Amino acid sequence: MAVTLSKHSYGKSHVCLSYISRKEDRHDFIQLSAEISLEGKFDDAYTSDDNSKVVPTDTMKNTVYAIARMHGVDSIEDFAKNLAVHFCQTYDQVESATVSVSEQLWTRIDCDGQPHGHAFTGGGSEQNTCCVSASADSITMHSGLKGLKVLKTTESGFEGYSKDQLTTLAETKDRIFATTITAEWDCGNVSEDWTAIRILVRSKLLEIFAHRYSPSVQRTLHEMAEAVLDSCPAISEITLNMPNQHHIPADIAKLGLQNHNDIFVPTPEPFGVIEATIRRDG
Amino acid sequence: MAVTLSKHSYGKSHVCLSYISRKEDRHDFIQLSAEISLEGKFDDAYTSDDNSKVVPTDTMKNTVYAIARMHGVDSIEDFAKNLAVHFCQTYDQVESATVSVSEQLWTRIDCDGQPHGHAFTGGGSEQNTCCVSASADSITMHSGLKGLKVLKTTESGFEGYSKDQLTTLAETKDRIFATTITAEWDCGNVSEDWTAIRILVRSKLLEIFAHRYSPSVQRTLHEMAEAVLDSCPAISEITLNMPNQHHIPADIAKLGLQNHNDIFVPTPEPFGVIEATIRRDG
Amino acid sequence: MAVTLSKHSYGKSHVCLSYISRKEDRHDFIQLSAEISLEGKFDDAYTSDDNSKVVPTDTMKNTVYAIARMHGVDSIEDFAKNLAVHFCQTYDQVESATVSVSEQLWTRIDCDGQPHGHAFTGGGSEQNTCCVSASADSITMHSGLKGLKVLKTTESGFEGYSKDQLTTLAETKDRIFATTITAEWDCGNVSEDWTAIRILVRSKLLEIFAHRYSPSVQRTLHEMAEAVLDSCPAISEITLNMPNQHHIPADIAKLGLQNHNDIFVPTPEPFGVIEATIRRDG
Amino acid sequence: MAVTLSKHSYGKSHVCLSYISRKEDRHDFIQLSAEISLEGKFDDAYTSDDNSKVVPTDTMKNTVYAIARMHGVDSIEDFAKNLAVHFCQTYDQVESATVSVSEQLWTRIDCDGQPHGHAFTGGGSEQNTCCVSASADSITMHSGLKGLKVLKTTESGFEGYSKDQLTTLAETKDRIFATTITAEWDCGNVSEDWTAIRILVRSKLLEIFAHRYSPSVQRTLHEMAEAVLDSCPAISEITLNMPNQHHIPADIAKLGLQNHNDIFVPTPEPFGVIEATIRRDG
């Protein structure tokens, strides 16, 4: 039987790195997880016993630490770019290398109003992310964030939606709106100040979420995206994923008690899923 | 500023259903989780406060249970197809509906060699999956499985690979090969016996994994895919994802002891990632 | 200020080991995770900078692999005992050593009715467990299992319970009963056939769960414990923990549909928790 | 065969509540998960089919929302106390009720330096906890926190420890110290300002962690506990659990590169476990 290997990639996931940048007056600390994926002329390893073109994933792992030594880790974008370019330039058989990095965030401990020089708290669900794809003649770069959990206790409603015989949802002008934001935007391929852009994106996302009345997750998502595009000329497109993590009014009427829209059951499942890509025109 | 809503979808995830099929002599039991995603004319909800086209995700949740009542749950493929078609046929604004279902597996308890009529054990990582996309004029269907964890203690090696100054991996003719198989194949859109096909696919995957010497994960993956295509004429293409979950020989030489290739450290991270799509020619 | 160090222990958790026992005609394979906890004369490390009594937890990790080399891994109970005894006998400052082991289960792949010699499937939630505490003059040993997920679709009810103004639960003679069994029993400290006992315990737990009508989780738990004590003279006491993992009838009446006690919503939370210890009299 | 039901308890876990306290100028928001466990005269349900004494765990769930209505949720300690007392006072068969509450933390979004009135970020691993046990004539209360993840990049070492032939760990004066703090302290049973105490405890834990050189996890744990007892007269005893979450220097010497103690591999397992209870004397 004749078959075709129509698509294939391989790589290493969850290569974890902690990096200390020892400044004179303080230490900076970055903890990241990298995923490397290569595409190219690796067919022989699939269709025969010939591994001669295969760069072991163990070597990819070593490369993460070697690149950290050789180039440092100034930002996850720079680091991912250095890695992706290395794989493309070093191995003829590599046609494209994609490196995704997610960064666990650590915040300086504040003691008596002073940020500490080398002690941090962590553990948040929010992560900074980036994804860089490099080939012989191009580099595409995306920055992002994920796990940014937000909630507002009011100024959110849902009314005027499509109804039929399977609709039981009650319209409301005042509900809890909780979501976990995942965002990804293009960030050019020259040396932008990725970190400054991320800070600006994040602040715009939070500002709109907090300040605008939300008639639907969709509308708020779109307004958040617009605000980002409006304030960051470097970004031409942003994708937002915002699940609707429901907090349902507890049914205490059946207990002879009244719910003043203040007692809720947060539910892990099911949840709504809303995702859209918005791009700047022209 | 002018922006374009270039891509968008929304839906409901983790709608969980347990379904008892009460046969005369026994109960069949199926537990599944459905994810529904709609694309269509929902722009107004993003660009204005107009929700009139939005089918609430709460209604999608209700629909899962209503479809279970109206059509039963014969297979996850049939169930997903019924759901996807319902959304396309019921709502003009829906251009395509995608329904993904994963099924937790339950096995009849065996008492004194007799399969019990209504008692089961569960808890395995393996799940049956399917994904159905329906539009006004077409349906595409894929079946799959995920979480199928397999391991062989020998008959696996890795030699003759590309080496450079960042290579430290030692070649071996005898290593542990552990992976967790995710597979997805097209399964026609007529009423195939999806379950019979899945059982055949699964047995071929396991057979090749167990019986062939593995010179690389890539090679074994390809052989497994070939065997599936060879034995299942209904399948034209299969995608396999097989991470390389490393068990590393424990370094006990530093303790003055000898490792006879029998004492290993199983490692959660990093892990290799190998994925490929193989299709039948012609 | 004067303070007292009233209780303290330290150790290493998640020391993971994969062990191949190479028999002539087949390989046996065991994958386990060990946790070691020491109590003893370690006060100085807490109350001063003196670490001289501290056995590094890194050494404990090394010891796991060394003991695997020196004594093999016949059963998790033997292995845990060898480890616990090692720490007590080797270090004067150790007053007691507790070693808990959990084993991930691997099942031989069956090909054409033949169990394969070295290929396995895994991924189940069920684990075998044991806990051994050793001091200079005593050893106590417990065997157990956890993660044994079971479900019955009928022959379970709940009626005649205490009612008051906060009760909204409806009585039922026919509900789904789903739980995940954790069991722990004493298993002597001499060389019992731990594995044979575990197999017998497991089969008794499943047999009673499957065959007896359950008027409450409590009643079934007690009957399961009684059956174990009745059939295993070596066991004098067993503790069972059986959460009540609710599958709630889907409320489709509000959709104008009828639930024939066959369409349920499995819920991750909240869940009931039922735990009891039953011991043989006299 | 005669058996004895030597110990038993039952209850409900993961009863989740979101509570909005609507103040004039802002909303306060609390999200918690409660676990209720009852002990008492429930033997009949185990040893016979008599459920007449059993308070359904479903009623316990309802009670969580009813108590939120009747008494509000000022602090998790008050809430847990109200719940525990309710069960003891309402049901004769209850001999003791234990209520454990963990609170997910939400932080007000800061917009242009102003804390927002009803929008929050969440997602941190840190939780506030408490545990209240009530019987007819006594109440014991503990407050705590868990999931407080901290890391320092220097000012931590480990030297002078016990060595033998299984020791391979190198001594160091400069290592990363990372841990996730779990703390529990007694907090009286009268109406203390639990929240003020928790804030003080937390600040003392962080202050000592950040500012003192750590010769061992044990020493630092003890100093942290001492500082808490020293600054909080209301606390007589504190238990701290501080796993040693290792970041291991990446072995890049094998790549011909030098590690300046700045490139590390963070490891999920194995990890050290250090736990101690320290109490005030006299």
UniProtKB/TrEMBL annotation, chains A, B, C, D:
GO MF term list: urate oxidase activity
Residues bound to O2: 57, 244
Binding locations of urate: 57-58, 158, 175, 217-218, 244
Entry keyword annotation includes Endoplasmic reticulum: no
Catalysed reactions listed for this entry: urate + O2 + H2O = 5-hydroxyisourate + H2O2
Keyword Metal-binding carried by entry: no
Active site: 12 (charge relay system), 57 (charge relay system), 246 (charge relay system)
Domain of life: Bacteria
Protein name: Uricase
